[in-house]
Amino acid sequence: MAIAVIGAGIAGLTAARRLDDTVVVFEKSRGFGGRAATRWYERPSGRVYVDHGAQYLKTENETMRRLMLEELSTADLSDIARPVWTFDADHVIREGDPEQNAAPKWSYRHGVSTLGKLLAASGRFEVRLRTRVGRLRLLADGRYALYDVEKNPLGEYEQVLIAIPSGQAAELIDNSDLPQSERIALQSALQAASYRRCLSIVLGYERDIAPRPFYALVNSDRRDPLAWLAYEHNKLGHAQRGQSVLVAQMGETYSLEQWETENEALVNEVAAHISELLGERLTDFDWADVQRWRYSQPNTLADPSQLNGVLRGLWFTGDYLIGGRVHLAAESGESVAAAIRQSRASA
């Protein structure tokens, strides 16, 4: 039985790995992992790896614990170890929650995107990168024909699992040839989910900045433009000696207001704000980068029961069904894979 998985994020890859049929994963980008993303930069003093989406990985559920610690390679896995502290809009910095900080904060030597690469390499499924599915067509025999955005055929499949953000999934359903009443129901269910946007700013320094007792700061009252600030060089293998890297993730309101701001003005403003927060001159960065996450984390969730089962053989998975964390996305992928196997067994 051929199965198509649309999207090579953690949910889609986890599902593909659990399915023992002929699976083809289609991914519009050139990499794996979705928001568990890493960029690398060649600098005079050596290569730097930066997690510019999800900042670290948690093994708080059985799905992620088993995947990361038992089934996949742990050779490059390490605990960040340092705690996360808090700050408020008055820029008062306090120690974080001891219980939360006791849990491991995992990263890989070359970034959290390693998880997606390990998942993709560990399964028997095929992955077609740089292939964007633009349309589904339900055939008379119950199979689905897939086409890319250029209307080129991508094959016919007994089951299709849509593992992309809800907004993209709604657009795909809108462009597809499906029964009208079911198509309207699916679109309505998908539109119930909403995502926040996030501007992720990377600031790089070819020097050591002041050491701190924490790995990162999180805004506790949600009144500051800055939501999260991380010291990326505290992760094993991410930076060379004498390099410092900050990752600033901005709050939803600021991100919406500044979405179209040019990168140069944006990084200068954010660097000035961080300097004020920390009481340290950090406006003299040597390089910078900006990532605009249109689908950062879900604000509201969709109901899986209003999506899975509406059309036979059409399935949905992702963080917008369960919650905006990587380990939850993996759990969603594993759950839907189990449902697909069960539906096949009872057919």
Summarize the structure in words.
With 347 residues, the chain is an alpha/beta fold. It folds into two domains: 1-30 and 129-192 and 301-347, 3-Layer(bba) Sandwich (FAD/NAD(P)-binding domain), CATH 3.50.50; 38-111 and 194-300, Polyamine Oxidase, Chain A, domain 2. It has nine helices and 19 strands. The strands form five sheets. The protein has a seven-stranded mixed β-sheet with strand order 7-6-15-16-17-14-18. The chain has a five-stranded parallel β-sheet with strand order 9-2-1-13-19, with helices on one face. β3 (38-43) and β4 (46-51) form a beta hairpin. α5 (166-174) packs antiparallel against α6 (180-191). It is elongated and about 65 Å long. The relative contact order is 0.20. The mean pLDDT is 96.
Structure in a nutshell:
The chain has helices at residues 10-18, 62-71, 98-102, 113-122, 166-174, 180-191, 252-257, 263-278, 326-346; strands at residues 2-6, 22-26, 38-43, 46-51, 77-79, 84-87, 93-94, 106-108, 126-128, 133-138, 144-148, 153-157, 159-162, 194-205, 216-219, 226-231, 244-250, 287-300, 314-316. Strand 3 (38-43) and strand 4 form a beta hairpin.
Distance from N terminus to C terminus (CA atoms, Å) equals 12 Å
Query: Which percent band covers the strand fraction?
Result: 25-35%
What fold name stands as the CATH topology of the largest domain?
Polyamine Oxidase, Chain A, domain 2
Residue-averaged pLDDT = 96
DSSP summary: helix tally: 9
Number of domains: 2
Largest sheet: 7 strands, mixed
Spatially, the strands of the biggest sheet line up as: 7-6-15-16-17-14-18
Helical content band:
25-40%
What is the helix/strand order?
A: EHEEEHEEEHEHEEEEEHHEEEEHHEEH
CATH architecture grouping of the largest domain: Alpha-Beta Complex
Low-confidence runs (pLDDT<50, min 5 residues)? none
Shape estimate: elongated
CATH top-level class of the largest domain: Alpha Beta
The Cα radius of gyration reads 21 Å
Q: Helix/strand-derived class?
A: alpha/beta
DSSP summary, beta strand count:
19
